[in-house]
Amino acid sequence: MDLNEKVDMIGRLYLGLEQIEDCKEFSALIPEVRTNFVYASKESTTPEDVLAVDGRVSVVDGFPKAIGRIKFGASGYMAHLLLEIRKKDSEIRSIIDFANNLEIAEFLKAYSKEKGWDFSVVDRSFEPENMKDAEGEAISWMVEEAVRVTGGKMPRVFYETGAVGKEPVSILVGKDPLEVAEQICELARSYRESGQGMR
């Protein structure tokens, strides 16, 4: 990865993060494990090629707030997830995770339909036993399942039902962090306007 690509990536993720930090409504969608926002280089093959927020995004004074700085290799799980998603659709270079519960799940289903987005649910109770210990394998199964549900296309939004000891989260995917930030903020505002997420 050359210096120009690194500079461009850092700038885009930084600007996307700024949008999210200004979006108070997104605070209601930050999960207990906190949010990460990741961006892969064009030729990404390992988590070291993926830019992320070190320490993730939490809630400070009612607003989303990045806890650490942006750096390559700062994410494990989300970086692996993005790399697996890119095997299915190389156009996708950025993803963000956010909360899930029954209320959010119902909202996401209706919202995706209204937006014309592909949407899927991954039921972790069907995860093969032999994959539960190997994080990488579980991620590849999850992505395969998300794509299978939408008939072979990578969904714009999908969520997983929680497994034992794992908080259920939702994922939104996009071509770059600016697109992802814009869409997640619009989604969060719509969720708030629907009268939900009033905490």
From TrEMBL:
Coiled coil: none annotated. This is Phosphomethylpyrimidine kinase. InterPro entries: Aldolase_II/adducin_N_sf, ThiN. Its EC number is 2.5.1.3, 2.7.4.7. Residues 16-185 form the Thiamine-phosphate synthase ThiN domain. Pfam families: ThiN (PF10120). It is an enzyme of class 2 (transferase). The keyword Kinase applies. Keywords: Kinase, Transferase. It comes from the Archaea. GO terms for molecular function: phosphomethylpyrimidine kinase activity; thiamine-phosphate diphosphorylase activity. The keyword Transferase applies. Signal peptide: none annotated.
